[in-house]
Amino acid sequence: MKMFDPHIHMTSRTTDDYQAMSNAGITVVVEPAFWMGQPRTHVGTFEDYFLSLLGWERFRAGQFGIRHFCTLGLNPKETNNPDIADGVIALLERYLDKDGVVAVGEVGFDDETPAEAHYFARQIELAIEHDLPVLVHTPHRNKKAGTIRTLALIRESGIAQERVLIDHNTEETLPLVLDSGCWAGHSIYPHTKMDEARMVALVKQYGSERIIMNSAADWGVSDPLKVPKTAAAMRDAGIAEHEIETIVWHNPLAFFAQSARLDIAEAEAPLLIDQRHNWEGNSVLRGQVPQVTTTE
Ligand SMILES: [Zn+2]
C-alpha cells in the first residue's frame, strides 16, 4: 500500500530515514515550514529555509523515490517576534506562488498571544489570496480551549472549511474538528500525545472521513515510520484495508490536491530514482554507486 506522510520535517532527518520510509511504502511527504528549536534572528534566514524546502530537500527526497511538497508560513511561536514577523509575511507574498507549495502552514496558536491571533488571521487571508489550503497547528497546552478558539477564528476568516486541515488532534478535539467541516490530522508520537492504539480506537469510533495522520517527525524524539506503523496497527485491529488506504493515502492526496499543485494521477505513479543527478552541483552520494530505477 502506498502511503503519504503529510506532516514531517525532513530537513532534520537523515538519508537513512528517507531510505527506511521508502522501504516502508511512503511515496509522498508534505514538509511544513516550522521553527528551528531556537528563535531566528533575521528575516533572511526564513528565505534560505523556504528555498531549501523548495530546492535541496525536494531533491533529496526524490533521490529516494519520495515526492516532496511543502507548506510555507510563519510558525506560531515566531509570530511573537516583532522584529521579523512582518518581514516574513512579505516574503510569503512571493514564495506562496512557487511550485511545490501545497498550503500555507503550519500556522495557528501556541501560547494564544495577541500576535499569534493577528498573524494566524493574516496568513489565512494570504491563503485565500493565493488560493491555497491551510495547515493549522493546535497548541499542546490547553488544547481543547485552543482548538475551540482556532475553529472560531477560521469561521470568521471566511475560508472554506474543507480547505483547512487542523493538526495534532486528540480524543478531546477530534469531534469538534469533524463537526466544523475541517479535516482532522493526528500526529503519532513515540511517547507522548497520540499513539498507535489511541489512533486505532479513534478510527473505530469515527471512521475515515476527513481523517489524516502523520508522524510530525522533526529534530526531537519522534519516528518517521509512524504512518506505516499505525497502518499496521489498524490492520491488526481488523480495520478494513480500504479504510486504512483512505486515511494514509486518499485523504491527504485529496486535501493537498486542492492547491492545484499536487496532481493525483502523477502522485499515484512511481517516482523514478536517478542518483546520477545533482542539485546545484551537489549529490547525496559520497562516492557510492548511484542507484537508478527504470520502468521495466
Ligand atoms: Zn510540525
Automatic annotation (TrEMBL):
Coiled coil feature spans: none
Record flagged with keyword Metal-binding: yes
Domain of life the protein comes from: Bacteria
Regions that span the bilayer: none
Record key words, sorted: Hydrolase, Metal-binding
InterPro entries assigned to the protein according to its UniProt record, in alphabetical order: Metal_Hydrolase, TatD-like, UCP005295
Record bears the keyword Hydrolase: yes
Pfam families: TatD_DNase
GO molecular function, one term: hydrolase activity, acting on ester bonds
Family per similarity comment: Belongs to the metallo-dependent hydrolases superfamily.
Name of the protein: TatD DNase family protein
